[in-house]
Amino acid sequence: MADERLLDLYRLMRRIRAFEDAAEIASQGGVAAWGLAASSKPALVRGPLHLSTGQEAVAAGVCISLQKEDLLTSTHRGHGHTLAKGAGSSRMMCELFGRATGYNKGKGGSMHIADFSVGMLGANGVVAAGIPIATGAAHALKIRKQPHVVACFFGDGAANRGPFLEGLNWAQVYQLPVLFVCEDNRISATTPTDTMTAGEGVSARARALAIPSLKVDGNDVEAVDQAAARLIAEVRGGGGPRFLHAVTYRFKGHVSVDPGTYRDPGEVAAAKLAGPLRLAAGKLIARGVSQAVIDRIDAEAQAEIEHALQVAEAAPWPEASAAYEDILNTGAGMWQ
After folding, report:
1. Which of 51, 243, 300, 304 would you label with 15, given CA atoms 20 to 30 Å apart?
2. How far apart (Å, rounded) are the C-alpha atoms in residues 55 and 155?
3. What's the rounded Cα separation, in Å, for the pair 26 and 291?
């Protein structure tokens, strides 16, 4: 039923929001550029942390139609994608905390989480770098004749970098099974994207390469779900690449300790009123779902993330010797 589907989507979005909120608090003071007093207690998340708060509908609406065997590439803002693809919140939080029991043994941190067991090939700290990785993975699927697809998330700023054209062109030339998802939050780090993007925007660029494209309200999780389900089915059916342009809004600054003072406070407040969780909850109530059911989902998500925080804070740090593990020996000898 439609209501059950929307409840599942709301549940997933609420888990993502709870994770981001907790990670944000845990990161305060963790980026050296903002400084720490000598007496300060180090933050639990000690490196840069890029939040997707406000963008939950895109991750949830796309990933709900993906199978476990399908693949996914993400961005530096990838916690939501990773959770939506099926990664566990506790191991994710351990990775953010730099602990040995994290998905990447504490070596990847927020921007480099990967969980191959659910097809999550990795977040990526380089803007647009996930696009050629996704295209290569899709080409491998085609060569192996495997019936899976790749979902490739990237932001609006990535459309102005070279790998965007290279990846989309390659995928279209070879008719690869990849869904490109532009998570358009309308700001590239600290600069409004429309001020530095020529032409009619990212959808037009995809269409110029003859890649079928849909543009949706990225705050409406049902709209994202319906569009993504259609496009994923076309990709899975052998139709070649597809492009989804989801327009959303990032509530927070570029990194978790960035107050975002370069934004109009009124614009941010208006965006929050039209945010994906509010919109989905309003739809559920209008369809007869009780506030008690919504409150229970909220509480369950909060309890899950509270548990993840406890697990992560109690988890062991990596041994110093682990720094030399998982490194390809190029013949140049060990690092000193």
Report:
1. 243
2. 11
3. 30
| Amino acid of residue 8 | D
**DSSP secondary structure of 211-245:** --EEEEETT-HHHHHHHHHHHHHHHHTT---EEEE
| Distance from C-alpha of 238 to C-alpha of 122, rounded to nearest angstrom | 25
- In angstroms, the Cα distances linking 112 to 42, 76, 154 are 21, 7, 14
DSSP letter at 319?
P
Paired tokens of 31 = 């980026």
**AA letter at 35:** G
What are the φ and ψ backbone dihedral angles of 9, each rounded to 5 degrees? -65, -40
Nearest alpha carbon to residue 65 among 221, 184, 189: 221
C-alpha of 208 from chain center: 26
Tell me the C-alpha distance between 62 and 294, whole Å.
Answer: 22
pLDDT tier at 326 (50, 70, 90 boundaries)? confident
What is the pLDDT, as a whole number, of residue 78? 96
Residue 76 and residue 255 in contact, taking contact as beta carbons nearer than 8 Å: no
Cβ(233)–Cβ(171) under 8 Å?
Answer: no
* Pick from 213, 202, 117: nearest CA to 172: 213
pTM reported for the whole predicted model: 0.93
Amino acid at 13: M
- Measured between alpha carbons, how far is 127 from 137 in angstroms, rounded to an integer? 18
Residue 282 has pLDDT above 50, yes or no: yes
Which conformational region is residue 214 in: left (phi greater than 0), alpha (psi within -120 to 50 degrees), or beta? Answer: beta
- Measure the CA–CA gap between 16 and 80, rounded to whole angstroms: 5
How far apart, in whole angstroms, are the C-alpha atoms of residue 171 and residue 246? 20
Answer for the pair 131, 122: CB distance below 8 angstroms, yes or no: no
Residue 167, both tokens: 């990846």
Q: How far apart are CA 72 and CA 149, in angstroms?
A: 9
What local confidence, expressed as pLDDT, does residue 33 receive?
Answer: 42
Task: From 151, 142, 143, select the one nearest 63 (Cα to Cα).
Answer: 151
β-pairing, 191-192 vs 178-184, is unpaired
Which of helix, strand or coil describes residue 150?
strand
